[in-house]
């Protein structure tokens, strides 16, 4: 019977080869390289997949997050998001989104009454 142990036949596993290749790449390239290949990968993904793809992965991510976090987590990230938004926007922004929200609610109520 043949021995498939990598140490005995001096062959490298796919995992080992991948790790070594990744280490060599990281030694030879800087942050800009990784940003560029990430951008290209994102563009390629967008070209090859429709909105349903993004909806599906977003839903899966949301479900996974909900399974691993409680209401305190959501309260904290909501607070942080609100603080960041208030630092980046003025009163006019809030008036505009408030008006949009009110109009959407009115339209929804009108559609439900028909």
Give an overview of the whole structure.
This protein has 114 residues and is mainly α. The chain is 84% helix and 0% strand. The protein contains six helices and no strands. The mean pLDDT is 90.
Order of helical and strand elements: HHHHHH
Total number of beta strands = 0
The best one-word shape is elongated
Based on CA atoms alone, the radius of gyration comes out at: 25 Å
Mean pLDDT: 90
The residue ranges in which pLDDT falls below 50 over 5 or more consecutive positions are: none
End-to-end distance: 77 Å
Report the biggest beta sheet as strand number plus sense, adding barrel if it closes. none
Proportion of strand residues = under 5%
Structural class: mainly alpha
| Count of separate DSSP helical elements | 6
Helix content: over 70%
Can I get a quick summary?
This protein has helices at residues 6-9, 14-28, 31-48, 51-68, 71-88, 91-113. The chain is an all-alpha fold.
